[in-house]
Design goal:
Number of helices: 5
Structural class: mainly alpha
Largest sheet: 3 strands, parallel
Strand content: 5-15%
């Protein structure tokens, strides 16, 4: 299996505990869906599929998940957050599982990974699903909507 490299921000003095949490308590499950490859599907539909593929890849079901995070610089709409729409589309709107967005422009995934790895290390959550879709502008023509989408979920 090829190594994948990630950059994780950790505050001074916490590097070892963050690294340990990433080694012991986190699994990166391989999912890669590209909006350009599926022009008939919305970013929300692909997000739901990515979540299900990640669960399948990890051998988990929704009941094993402690939180849902949508990390993106763009969103379906401002309120409620996109993670709520994903949770609802997965059929788990009333599950009680916290779902929220982390929006930090193009750094959203890294900020979500760092934030949630700290929450896992602190014992707040055990398993977290993070998806990082890009929602093209709704007023863009179809060909621009595909071209402006980011390459991975």
């Amino acid at each position: 299996m090829a190594h994948r490299w990630y950059v994780v921000h950790a505050y001074s003095g916490f590097e070892k505990s963050v690294a340990q949490a990433l080694r012991d308590k986190t699994a990166v499950c391989g999912v890669g869906l590209t909006l350009g490859d599926y022009p008939e599907k919305s970013a929300l539909q692909l997000s739901v599929e990515a979540y299900q593929l990640a669960l399948d890849d990890a051998g988990l079901d929704f009941g094993d998940i402690d939180a849902i995070v949508c990390a993106s610089g763009s969103f379906e709409q401002a309120i409620p957050c996109t993670a709520v729409f994903i949770q609802q589309a997965m059929g788990h709107a009333k599950s009680g599982v916290p779902s929220f967005d982390i929006n930090s422009t193009c750094l959203s995934f890294l900020v979500a990974l760092d934030t949630m790895s700290c929450a896992v290390a602190a014992g707040r959550y055990r398993r977290v699903l993070i998806v990082s879709p890009h929602f093209p502008p709704v007023n863009a023509p179809d060909h621009q909507r595909v071209r402006t989408s980011l390459p991975h979920y």
